């Protein structure tokens, strides 16, 4: 069953108001009228570190989730997860720096 929108008032003023309201659904821009964008961005950076940074190669975006998946399998409660993840990211830097993959696309 499809949805329909109708109005019975034949006033030109009401017609214009309804057309303006419908036109709002066609807008593609985003707004931050309540100021919640900064909070959203903070959570995004905390929950998905590195996903908002420009990366030279898209394949490196997989390393951070891979590290967290491996930490989840290991389940070492002695050290906080954030510290373990940071250590593994630092350890990953050395093999990447010494690799002969210099392609930036």
Strand content: under 5%
Q: How confident is the prediction overall: mean pLDDT?
A: 76
What is the 3D shape? elongated
- Give the number of DSSP strands: 0
- Total of helices: 4
The structural class is mainly alpha
Q: What distance lies between the first and last C-alpha atoms, to the nearest angstrom?
A: 47 Å
Described by strand count, sense and barrel closure, the largest sheet is: none
Instruction: Report low-confidence residues grouped into runs of 5 or more.
Output: none
Q: What gyration radius follows from the Cα positions, in whole Å?
A: 25 Å
Helix content range: 40-55%
What's the order of the H and E elements?
HHHH
Written description of the protein model:
Helices cover 51% and strands 0% of the residues. The chain has a domain at 53-98. The chain is elongated, with a radius of gyration of 25 Å. It has 105 residues and is mainly alpha-helical. Helix 3 (63-74) crosses helix 4 (81-98).
What structural keywords apply?
single chain, 105 residues, mainly alpha, 4 helices
Topology overview:
Layout: H1 12-24, H2 37-47, H3 63-74, H4 81-98
Helix pairs in contact: 3-4
Short description:
The protein is mainly α and 105 residues long.
